[in-house]
Amino acid sequence: MAVQSADAPTSEPPCAALIRVAVLITCFNRKQVTLRCLDALFAQSLTNCSLQVFVVDDASSDGTLDAIAERFPDVQLFSGTGDLFWNHGMHLAFSKALPHDFDYYFWLNDDTILFESALQDMLQSAQRMKRNGIEPIIAGNTMNPDTGKLSYGGIMKGTRFLHGAFRLADYNPHHEEPCDTMNGNCTLIPRAVVRKLGNLDMRFHHNFGDFDYGLRAKASGFAIYMTAGFVGACSDNSFDGTWRDENASLAVRWAHLNSPKGCPWPEWPIFAKRHLGPFWFLYAVSPFARVIWGSLLAAKLR
Prior knowledge:
Layout: E1 2-3, E2 19-27, H1 31-42, E3 49-57, H2 64-71, E4 76-79, H3 85-97, E5 104-108, E6 113-114, H4 118-131, E7 136-139, E8 142-143, E9 150-152, E10 154-156, E11 167-168, E12 177-178, E13 181-182, E14 186-190, H5 191-197, H6 209-219, E15 223-226, E16 232-233, H7 250-257, H8 267-275, H9 280-301
Parallel strand pairs: 1-3, 2-3, 2-5, 3-4, 7-15, 8-16
Antiparallel strand pairs: 5-14, 6-16, 7-14, 8-9, 10-11, 10-13, 12-15
Helix pairs in contact: 1-2, 7-9, 8-9
């Protein structure tokens, strides 16, 4: 696997067969998790592919930045302000990669451990579809290492009357399946999509940026496919202590709902208005109504 600096001069143009991939990662205060992710990334079995890795460390206090610099000196490192969260951190990494016009941009969560042939398999899928006239985003399916079940990957929109009921798509272990959008944990995006859409939308702080990007890509005529089987391991997040936790108090649920990792106003209404049809305003208020009503009902039943 070749690893090149995005800023390093070259004496001759690259071979036409060489695929240039920008890997985009943002991280915060989980040094060992981030290092394991990078270990797996640099252990990928790749052919005719050049990687350049862009990592945003959001002012970690646990030595993440220095540890990455020491173990992976070819990684392009950038510092955040400590309040970027996922979408703003990935936006910063994306902005550093965009001027170099890579063939593909690979979003990778730092808690995702890629299997050895993951990226090669995703690139081969994308290249094969491109030869058949399809320019797809490839959403990598990941498994929960504790349960062996699907944790992140392709996403399907709800039914005609429940547009906001997003769910994980059913994957096929033998071939790729189309989907409506995707989690951003492990996602391969071709140059054509990026030239059309540009960067992630900065109006989203943590959530919604990946779903929004995929839905905008579909609306622009691009396809999204989920991988055949799993390409890596990533534990899914628990609802405990979040706004979805029905056992938590109203105060706790309300605080989390309005945090960057919840459905804060006006971010969720922006997403709803853009993607959830003529009755978007009902979806916009639904999380707030759900928390209030659910908490009051739970208190009454206690």
